[in-house]
Write a structure and sequence with these properties.
The protein has a single domain, classed as 3-Layer(aba) Sandwich (VC0467-like). The protein is α+β, with helices and mostly antiparallel strands. Helices cover 19% and strands 32% of the residues. A hairpin with a 2-residue loop joins strand 7 and strand 8. The protein is built from five helices and ten strands. Belongs to the UPF0301 (AlgH) family. Pfam families: DUF179. InterPro entries: AlgH-like (IPR003774).
């Protein structure tokens, strides 16, 4: 069973199979920050139908995929990347994985094609927890924890990520990965 000491930037929070909250159903969240006062993460499993170009002022970005980072403040744009050589000022949350950075450099790298979508992800909104809230949720078994792997964070088929991450954990987690979305249909 995971403990609050397992919570740190760079871990994945994997929702338990029967969590009904639509914002977190079968969700995998990359934890970007965890302190005594708050926790912050981005949902990796919820691609949106809108594209980044549709929310930017200038139509220069092309068809960039956009993810719902969580239910908190969908007016905030966040990004994660693995190209600190192109984007300065990001915070390393796991070896080779960065959150945020110089947005002007991001725009330039995307427009001129020097960064690919296997190296950067954009999110609107985020997932946030107040002091102690995530610790309590972890103790109540709402989340499982796994160290983030770069290939999971940039999974090209986010609909498969929840099952894949659980399967990789092995043991009883493999069994959980096979649970149907609706157990009544079993």
């Amino acid at each position: 069973m995971p403990s609050p000491s397992d919570l740190k930037p760079g871990v994945l929070l994997i929702s338990e199979p029967f969590l009904e909250d639509p914002s977190f159903k079968r969700a995998v969240i990359l934890l970007c920050e965890h302190t005594r006062s708050h926790s912050f993460g981005l949902v990796l499993t919820q691609p949106q139908e809108v594209i980044l170009d549709s929310i930017m002022d200038a139509k220069v970005m092309g068809e960039i995929p956009l993810f719902a980072g969580g239910p908190v403040d969908p007016t905030i744009l966040q990004f994660i990347h693995r190209r600190p050589d192109l984007i300065q000022g990001g915070q390393e949350i796991s070896p080779g994985l960065f959150w945020a950075g110089d947005f002007e450099q991001v725009i330039e790298a995307v427009v001129d094609g020097t960064i690919s979508f296997q190296e950067i992800k954009f999110f609107i909104g985020y997932s946030g927890w107040s002091a102690g809230q995530l610790d309590r949720e972890l103790k109540s078994n709402a989340w499982m924890v796994s160290q983030a792997r770069i290939e999971d964070v940039f999974e090209e088929e986010p609909g498969k990520l929840w099952r894949n991450v659980l399967y990789q954990k092995g043991g009883n987690f493999r069994v959980l990965s096979t649970y149907p979305d609706d157990p009544n249909l079993n």
